[in-house]
Amino acid sequence: MGFDPATLLAVAGIALSIFALAMLAIGATALADKRWWVAAFAMGAIGFGLMIVSPENPLLWPRDLANVVFMLAYGFCHAGARSLASRRPVLPVMVGGAVVWLALTKGLHISAELRVPFASVLVCGYATLIAAELLRGSTVVEKARRLAGWLCVLHACFFAARAILGPTLGLLANNSLHTTLSAWAAILAFETIIFSAGLAMLILAALRDKEATVDRHLALTDSLTGVGNRRAFEIQARALLTDVPHRGPRPILLMMDLDGFKTVNDGLGHAAGDRLLVEVASAARHCLTDPDQFWRVGGDEFVALLCGSAAARAPLIAQSIRAAVKDVSRISAAAIGISVTIGLIRARDGVTLAQLLEEADTALYAGKNQGRDCVVIGEVQVAEALNSQDNSWRDRPPSLSSQRVTSEIGQPVASISTLNPDAFTRPSNMGEEVASGPSRLDHRKA
């Protein structure tokens, strides 16, 4: 059975055209994310078309133009691989292969015998660079992207062997050289079809994975401040609380509410209030060891979770956030008079997220009713910190009483037990009333 390289090259070109159209039409992925891949497959199809219509003499210009188009196709693949990781294309890499090929063929006039190994080296180099971009920074969940990278590694190996062993990979049949070269041209076309089909399917899957990741990020991000939203907080907080019995240091929840924010909104407008929220969120995140553990859960309400060594420094971190907000109020004209009240509570075995939020909320509004602009440590937090032998608290002062912490950091910090329990209600402009202090505290101590 004879091989018909022209037919196989035509099939390869048609296949690449179909892949380009499919990538353009399938899925809701933004065109900006897949334009490089569409262009790459389209250029590959054009290259195969030039190979078919060009004379067999490799020294004539149609063959050189076909190889230039192929190099540009690989350059676009490299740009597409970088776009998957949200990296910008590198122009020298995109056009470098085409420029080198023109320099070799039109400048140095290399012989027909040298064109196959040189072209194979360029393709091998491109495939290696594309594989590196696809594999670099890919996560375990990005399976399609990783598989596409390894497919490019195999493609690079094929052309590396072709560059070293020649167009027939060192396997010259017992018939004429022309027949053998035709057979290997057919094999090359087969390899291109298989590689292109696999790459197209994997890249489509990788683009969909990226789109899903972006959608998930948007669903879990506060559009104004760029920090996580309430949904993101609940997901991560529940995961952390589930691990509480298995972890050493207990996570600390900080609940924050701006003081005087309504005045800014009413007096200067919502645009000024939005700018203030952005500035406050940025300032507060800079105080945290892990800025990703910070969320906006309401209009001017934020929460943070301190884990590991940061939990042992919770009062100090809370005070640094309080000071950072005061700095914002001094710098920004829209924030004059703005401060923050923070309620602090430690997670415990068996505690639910709803209970933790309720206790932090009680501490927060105790501070609101006692003058605001302070850090209040919840009663459960104080009692357990004073009486517990938990090793996770060895890195901080042995007592979290009001006097102890104030003497160390010189800022207003209080436990609920130091405040007037009769004042445990939300301010009138904050809506519903919080349960009264004595019953809540007595219940905790019982």
How many strands, what sense, and barrel or not for the largest sheet? 6 strands, mixed
- The CATH H-level superfamily of the largest domain is Reverse transcriptase/Diguanylate cyclase domain
Strand percentage lies at 5-15%
Helix-and-strand structural type = alpha/beta
H and E string: HHHHHHHHEHHEEHHEHEHHEH
Low-pLDDT residue spans: 381-411, 415-446
Helix content: 55-70%
Terminus-to-terminus distance: 91 Å
Number of helices: 16
Shape: elongated
The overall average pLDDT, rounded, is 77
Give an account of the 3D structure.
Helix 3 (61-84) packs antiparallel against helix 4 and helix 5 runs antiparallel to helix 6 (143-165). This protein has helices at residues 5-25, 31-53, 61-84, 91-107, 112-135, 143-165, 177-219, 230-242, 261-268, 270-285, 309-312, 314-331, 353-369, 379-387, 402-409, 437-445, and strands at 252-259, 294-296, 301-306, 339-346, 375-377, 413-415. Mean pLDDT is 77; it is low at 381-411 and 415-446. It is 62% helix and 7% strand. The longest helix has 43 residues, at 177-219. It folds into two domains: 5-219, Up-down Bundle (Rhopdopsin 7-helix transmembrane proteins); 230-445, Reverse transcriptase/Diguanylate cyclase domain (Alpha-Beta Plaits), CATH 3.30.70.270.
